[in-house]
Amino acid sequence: MVDFSKGNIMFFFSIVLSSIFVLPLNSYAIEQDVFTIFAVNCEDKVELLDYKEFYSMNPSFNYDIEGKTTEELMNKTFLRLDSFAQGRSIVFQHWFDNISKKVKFVRNVNLGQHTDNLGFIEWKGCQVEQLAKGMDINNEGKTLIINRDLWERMDSRSQVGVYLNYFLNLEYILYRLNEDSVNTRYFNGLLSSSQFKKIEPRVYPNIYENILDFNKISFYGMFFEIRGYASSGERGYSVEFDSQGKLVRGKLTFDDFHFFNNIDLIKLKFTNAPGFLGEMGSLEEFRPDLNGDFLLKSYRTIKEHLCLGTLKLEPKKYLNLKLNFKEGKTKIINASGLFRYQDKVYRKIVFKDKKFKVLESSQTEIRNEYREIKIGICE
Amino acid sequence: MLKISLIYFLVFNLPAMGGESGRAGNGGGGLFCKGKKNYLLDYYEAEFNEIHTFNNLIGTTPDQRLNLLHSRISKYNPFLTMMIKHVRELFRTQSIYIKDVNFKIPEDYRTIFYERTCELKVVAVQISPFFEGGNIFFINQDLWEQLDVIAQEGLINHEILYYIALGAGAENSRSVRQALAYIMSDQFRDNEEEFITKFLNKVTNGGFF
Q: Is A195 on the interface with B (CB under 8 A)?
């Protein structure tokens, strides 16, 4: 029985209030079309501000990405990022592979003003300077202008950090309209550090939402909403990870990463039913079953006729899919629901012998016109 | 039990309520004077403007000074005292000392005046942690080592009260400096509840603590 005493009412009220305060509030942010990347110029060397700042604030951590060249360090970083933000890792790799077409190194150029927040630390004998300007990578021409004089005095680690800063802030500042790079600088430092491996995967959604301002994340070629909520004094999210960092639960969304246009790499492709999911409408739940496969549940209407091989499914509700993810490929193992096929009703369609077939042994006497999905023929 | 739960909840959510993670709050300041002792800004301002004196602190032990703070507050706001104790534990576990740096002078320090032989510097800064368990309080170790123990304790108390005030919506540390100076001063009037509540409200912004 709930106790509605004054103390409890105040307690619950304060929970609601604090939930409101943690929601992102950049509805009135000013649109920016360029942002700045900073370096700390000391007598003996130049470092990326992100790393200088992060390691000053966290002296117990250390840079621990292995490699000597820029390529080696970037590849190791992408591996690390892959378990944390799979879709964005793919996008960043795509951008890095083409970065030489977008970068211009300059000397003796005024890089203009900035409105960023440079943090609270000043290092004795050092100056924080503008190292580079970043613009939308989808624009024509060069979109990352770098001061060569500072760049040449940086080691490979800092140079890699410059590219990561650029990729992170393309979304954080230019697309999601945040005003400064405080959070992305912090995350850039965190990603490079010995601390990153110690972060429990259950904390990932907190980092997505509160540090990086992600509202969607992509894994297995699907898009999931982050969506935080407060319940019984605890904060929760729609996405959940196991102890290995594998996404095991999430609320699917068909909203794309609009900013990452023309990068087809993160769109879901069922190897045995190309294009199927894109026509399906709304899939609500994604979770593992006991065998390590994944279940997708649909509670909404399928928008158009769908083809599973030669089987044509009419638009209806209540279709569940069992999926298997192996070696980067996604396959539909079976579909379950109520399927009316040749005047009989079946519970399952399976993928067997390279074909989708109605499973004869799943025939049922249950009739439910509202939930039945009629099966026709796809040419 | 309910009050303890509420304290724990508020202490760990005050940074989120007060602003986005990573944002720095103007911290504790110090006056560093040639040929003289160095001061906590809160106490220096009060003495310089001839509002308060702090002779009662001379010759006392750290425990006595801590009890003075807690007892003066708890008589009129025991809940706030409990919060202070919890935030003190946060300070103990989530603070970091940094050498060879300066911290930037905040805007509200521009209206502070002081003797020419002194320099006004920021000794401590606090930020809303990026995630649970992250460092909150950052202390300039070089300046910290130049303060005497009364000023060091005062700095910690300032940071604790400011942590609470930021969560209640404070935009700078001015009110906290005034509140701390009054609470620790010779002029504290133990029997004037309305006057004392006015100063405690400088910390809690009149909130429901």
A: no
